[in-house]
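[stage:ingest] chain + small molecule (flavin mononucleotide)
[stage:ingest] validated
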Amino acid sequence: MIADATTAGISRLVYVSAATAPQDSDALTRILAKSRDNNRRDGITGLLIYHDMTFIQLLEGAPDDIARCFARISADPRHGSVSRVLDGPVAARSFPEWQMGFADTREMSSQARDKVLSIGELRTNGSASVSDDPGLSVLVKSLLGTLRG
Ligand SMILES: Cc1cc2nc3c(=O)[nH]c(=O)nc-3n(C[C@H](O)[C@H](O)[C@H](O)COP(=O)(O)O)c2cc1C
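[stage:predict] done
[stage:export] tokens:
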């Protein structure tokens, strides 16, 4: 749990991106290990989902820290076409205990998994800028609600 002196200023960012290569569990473990180290330092928490060449990630923390982290992530060659889906202030963290949780689609409810698959399809088949697709933010919000239980 992050000691949160600045709960009033929590920013939440969710993006969807296309992996440049398929990610096996070793590759995901490396991403998560680095993320957890950095996020512990930066007071960032969140959740990463990977399925079939699509990353979905939620980051929450102080606005400046989120901006710096997202800039690093956006420049990472392990993915391209990073599209911000949700970005703005929230009253509280949704995943305060996770420096970066990993939500494995094989362990999700079928309801949550279906939403991940639909987000992946929208990313692959959608317009050039999926962040313009209103259906995507609706789906992501609904997925987050399902995952939080
Ligand atoms: C899908 C994905 C998610 C990532 N998530 C994070 C993250 O939550 N926090 C973070 O610091 N780096 C994350 N990274 C790694 C960054 O892109 C970058 O490699 C790292 O922040 C550089 O850290 P360094 O300057 O300490 O070497 C992620 C990378 C990928 C591909």
